[in-house]
Amino acid sequence: MKASLRIIVLGLAVLLLSGCAVAAMPRVTVGGQAVDAYLADTMAKRSEGLAGFDGLADGEALVFVYPDERVRTFGMKDVGFPIDVVFIGVDNTVTAIVPLYVGDTRKIQSPGPSRYVLELPQGWASAHDIAVGSEFTYDDGR
Q1: What is the DSSP letter of 135?
Q2: Cβ atoms of residues 95 and 132 within 8 Å
């Protein structure tokens, strides 16, 4: 009986561990500051954005990763907390930081082509001396 119980427990552990592979979080820095980033790297994830989030903690962000470099348009679709949208230029530096507020209906655009965009808690960039020209790094761990 004990041997069969061990086999069952071992089998359940293998089953649970094989189905619970955790995707690596990307490593993101902006202005030398590490950011804990959620990843929006598919059309569906980019379309959803921060909808459904209750907020972002200090040092958290949503990083949008696109397959190409183009002018990007952002807004506050279904976001219930204020954010800063940080556009990253093709040279991997910040090209603009635009605050958006709950209920804001504006559509904002990057000042030039961009492959990456960060959404941060409003004021975080300023509090950490992030400004236009700050360096951005992204490593997806692959």
Answers
A1: B
A2: yes
Residue 71 identity (one-letter amino acid): V
Paired tokens of 124? 């975080």
Which residues, including other chains, have CB under 8 Å from residue 35's CB and lie 6 or more apart? 28, 29, 59, 60, 61, 63, 118, 120
pLDDT digits (tens, 9 = 90+) for 45-72: 999 999 989 999 999 999 999 999 999 9
pTM of the model: 0.81
Q: Look over the chain and give the mean of its residue pLDDT values, rounded to a whole number.
A: 86
DSSP reduced 3-state for 16: helix
> Which are the contacts of 114, defined by CB distance < 8 A and separation ≥ 6?
66, 69, 70, 71, 72, 87, 88, 89, 90, 95
